[in-house]
Amino acid sequence: MNFFSLPPSGNPIPISHIFRATSVFFRNTQGEDGFQEIIKTYLKVKHCLLVSSGTAALWLILKAAKKIEQKRNEVIIPAYTCPSVAAAVIRAGLKPILCDINMQDFGFELEALKKKINFKTLAIIIVHLFGFPSNIRKVKQISRSSNILLIEDAAQALGNSMINSPQEKLGSLGDIGFYSFGRGKPLTLNHGGLIVTNNSQLFEQIFQIYQTIERPSLTENFLLLAKLYFYVFFFHPSLYWIPQSIPFLKLGKTIFDLNFKIKKTSPIGVALANKSIGLIEENKKVRQKNTTFLLQRLNENKKVRQKNTTFLLQRLNSFKKINLPAYPFPYLRFPLIVSSNTHRNRLLAHLRAQGLGATMFYPCPLNEQPGLKEYLHDTNIYPNAKKLSQTLITLPLHQEVSHKDLNTMVDIITHYL
């Protein structure tokens, strides 16, 4: 048995931050205002609001949007995304409408998106998968021409910006955006979500609903503390294999669940966020450094695309069985597209055997997701969503990934493809 196992995503939480959060909890202080003011300045937005999760944040946005546009009830979402997006739409009493993706930035296929819009369309949810920017400028043009709300799912993209435009932070460019602080996200706090917007009318409706929801109970707060200490201890390659081998934890499983909690954020989460906010840029730099290293090693037969790109892209572009990212971006996970499902599964097995944190990400388009199919009643085929689900491998890029690990990934990829 291999006792080395890299976590697929996330980032370490300093134990001192957990101690601080514990102290704040027992002193019964909140500190939300301070964190929210920092976030508003960082993202250049007028309004923000902390809640219990990214899914709860999306639910709040949709409930508020429905109050403003009561005759509309359809929400267009990517056919390949997290089932929690669909869960939030359904629980808000709305109908998810699936749209195929493109294989360049994994955002909407624009012509397909235009065909999905009708007089019942309330919102479009654009997803920045792996933290990489979708073509929000084009999607914004489409949404505005039909007076449709554009929601940015930046759950995987906190801190990331449009390419060559660092002032344009993902999540702040649509009508409204949301982030997640859950396990495996750019700022991992194991709890919390964030809504950001410059739309005062929409935010007012959101805040009215927000005032009706509860804060986590004492039991839930103690459970969060326990999870945080558990996470800090096991987020290490020499120990991660332990929780990974416990079935009921369902690590790495993609699950559709309508029973997600909708609550205000925990004081523990607020304290941890206040203490950890400085890690956003630090974590992003680590992911970008590791992405660049991988790209430099995987493209030896091509010119370096950017000044610092001399290693990962260079060794793998000679292989016709894989497609690599074209840009050394601070991805949440490094996306690698293999030529076929057979080659993907074989390569994935070898990477996993070495404990390198490789995953296949979401296993299928949403209309094939167990538990969700009966809500969608959608028998359409989404070719790109299907292709990505069958050929994608993601590799970890966080602080626990060493250059030795990255080199081993490259060696396995070049050997087995």
Any overview of this molecule?
This protein is of the alpha/beta class and 417 residues long. The protein has two domains: 15-210, 3-Layer(aba) Sandwich (Aspartate Aminotransferase, domain 2), CATH 3.40.640; 279-416, Aspartate Aminotransferase, domain 1, CATH 3.90.1150. 41% of the residues lie in helices and 14% in strands. The chain is built from 16 helices and 13 strands. The chain has a seven-stranded mixed β-sheet, sandwiched between helices. Strands 11-12-13 form a three-stranded antiparallel β-sheet. Helix 1 crosses helix 10 (267-276) and helix 13 (341-353) packs antiparallel against helix 16. It is globular, with a radius of gyration of 21 Å. The two termini are 25 Å apart. The model is unreliable at 300-312 (pLDDT under 50).
Question: How would you describe this structure in keywords?
Answer:
single chain; 13 strands; 3-stranded antiparallel sheet; Aspartate Aminotransferase, domain 1; 417 residues; 7-stranded mixed sheet
What is the topology?
Layout: H1 15-27, H2 32-43, E1 47-51, H3 54-68, E2 74-78, H4 83-91, E3 95-99, H5 110-116, E4 121-127, H6 136-145, E5 149-153, E6 161-162, E7 165-169, E8 176-180, E9 193-197, H7 200-210, H8 218-234, H9 241-244, H10 267-276, H11 279-297, E10 298-300, H12 313-316, E11 322-323, E12 333-338, H13 341-353, H14 373-376, H15 383-391, E13 392-396, H16 403-416
Parallel strand pairs: 2-3, 2-4, 4-5, 5-8
Antiparallel strand pairs: 1-9, 6-7, 8-9, 11-12, 12-13
Helix pairs in contact: 1-8, 1-10, 3-4, 3-7, 11-16, 13-16
